[in-house]
Amino acid sequence: MRDIERLFNEYSESHMNPTNKMIHNLAVPAIYFSVIGLVWSIPVPGFIEQYGVNFAHIIAIPVLYYYFLLSGPIGAAMTLLTIACFLIIEQIAQSTVPVWQVSVGVFVIMWILQFIGHAIEGKRPSFFTDLRFLLIGPAWVWGSWLKRLNISY
Predict the structure, then answer these.
(1) Which of 6, 69, 81, 101 has the most CB atoms at less than 10 Å from its CB?
(2) Average pLDDT of 33-48?
(3) Domain boundaries, the chain
């Protein structure tokens, strides 16, 4: 069994309840977005900033590399999600509300929802046993969409 399949199977064990799945389909990508927004908000030194790069761009490279190591289609899907997050964050950055404030709000609300989902499920979140599941969650959401579209990963 491929590593991606094993990780998805293990992650799925604590995500069987339909309500918990629905919550995770909303909350997990939103948390991914909020983490990118928080990392985006960390001030960068001028020698990096001059190139229009921030820490979110830098961190995205190894994260996306990990996803591509697991699966090409998952890597491509996560690249699309990451680009969408960057585009939304750029729009927020042009508004009067700081990106970090939006990101903290989304992060807190979505984690509360996730813990409600796990209370309904009756199982602890997967990342309590393996921190990799913090990265697997967003890929798992995409994996379910890819299955619906008959795209193998």
Answers:
(1) 81
(2) 96
(3) 3-148
Q: What is the pTM of this model?
A: 0.91
Distance of CA 131 to the CA centre of its chain: 13
Residue 4's contacts (CB-CB under 8 Å, 6 or more residues apart) are 70, 71, 74, 139, 143, 153
Nearest to 111 by CA among 41, 31, 50, 49: 31
Q: Of 53, 80, 59, 56, whose CA–CA distance to 139 is shortest? A: 80
Distance CA 68, CA 85 (A): 18
Per-chain mean pLDDT for the chain: 94
| Phi and psi angles of residue 77, each rounded to the nearest 5 degrees, phi first | -65, -40
